[in-house]
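Batch job 17 of 40 flagged for manual review because the log was empty.
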Amino acid sequence: MHRSRIPFPCVPFAVTLAMAGLLSVPASAQVFAGTDVVLDPNTGLEWLRVSESVGRSYDDLVGADGSNEFAAGGDFAGFRHATVAEAEDFLGNAGFDVLGAPSAALFDEALSLILRLGGPTFVSGGLERIFALTATSSIAPGSRDRILISLDDDAGTGDAGVNGAFDEAVASAAHGHLLVREAAPLPEQRHAYVARNGEAGVAVIDLSTNTVIDTVPTLRRAVALAVSPDQTRVYALNLSDSSVSVIDTETRSVVSHHSITTTGTPRGLAVSADGGQLFITDQADPGGVLVIDAVTGAEIDSVAVDPFPYGIRRSADGSQMYVSSPNTLEISVIDVASLTTVATSNANFAQFDLAVGESSGAIYSARSAVVYEVDPVALISPVDVGVGADTRGVSVSERIGRVFTSSNDDATVSVVDIESFSVVATIPTGSVQLFGGILAPGIEATEEGDLVYAAQGNNDTVVAIDTLSNEVIAEIPAGDTPVDVVFVPEPAANGLGLAAALSLIAVARSRVSRGMN
């Protein structure tokens, strides 16, 4: 399905990381957004989308014509051609057998991988293919091979031929290159915090082992979690006594406890961009969002929104809060500075959960069995797609160009490609309804985009999904009725403290904007 891009203001992922000191990008080199590269956490390589290198000859890239695009300042500085062995590893890690015919069972996985690599660069007779230049070690004239991925039971390696598209000087708009670079290392330790509505305490999962390594004794049952911008605090919203427990992430202990007053049921929780305020949805009619001081718990204000508000998410620039209402199926927009509702949608596309694109600012919402991309300014949805029945949770990773939705009735997670806005994989996560009741489930993608964790309230587990292979890699017992998941990464690499990195990222967002491409 063809779609037009919404001109949301955004910051390229690579620019953001470069300003935070996480990537080294030459000033004159072409800057690629997060969705232009595909991370394979199994090998530590990032693969550039093939569509970024179409129309470029081998000579052009390696410098045979005098312009080495891999050198500092070149269009592909930091990248190199992949080897055949690396390409086979990459495809194999994604569940695709490059040397054999793709079976019907692998169709979704193969299509998902092709879309992540940039979509088909050559279409003939209904066949979708990606071509790339590779070699067994390093590329030299006469030693090039090709990797062909297709959906027509034809996949393999072979010589390109002297007059083929891979001749040194030939450039083709139908053929691109498989280019790779070493990825910035993932944090050595990452933790997932899990809210449990069936028992007290917040479970802590070590993502490297997919095991529960601790339980923070909150003494209350939590329904929602939020993380402070500096990653030092996790806030747990407790349904049983209308309160917020404040957890220190270094000691994994409760350091304070805020009692709150609501007219209905507290349900959703978000933190302001400066970390000073907590926003809590109050499920009542008329609806409201309670605003309290994050440190003292003192009530600051209550903002009127649509009846029975549910999910709440902070905008990408931190200036607004988006609130969903399953009663009206609309999104209310709160201005954080004035604490007033400044807009309400009129399109019936928001039910329980919301997600916000960190770079684009786009809102992703779900209603029943449909997920929508929403323009955050006009509050209209230019594109939507059908997903699993009774969809509850929504998460987005623009780093890998994917939206993830959890289905209660189908016990599945749907994977939506942002570029085509089509479902590229449907992942079974259990044999029973996942969530049940009115509680919207937690589903979150890691910041790196390599993993997705989905709470299974009825199964008392959290499932871990590998986003490269689109497979469940672990089912983790997490206590009675897990319903929400958040992540707490370690401080940024290269000796830069996390608070400083976040500060630089905020500066980048305030100074740089561009349309999605």
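Reviewer: the log was empty due to a logging misconfiguration, but the result itself is present. The chain has a mean pLDDT of 79. Unflagging and moving on to job 18.
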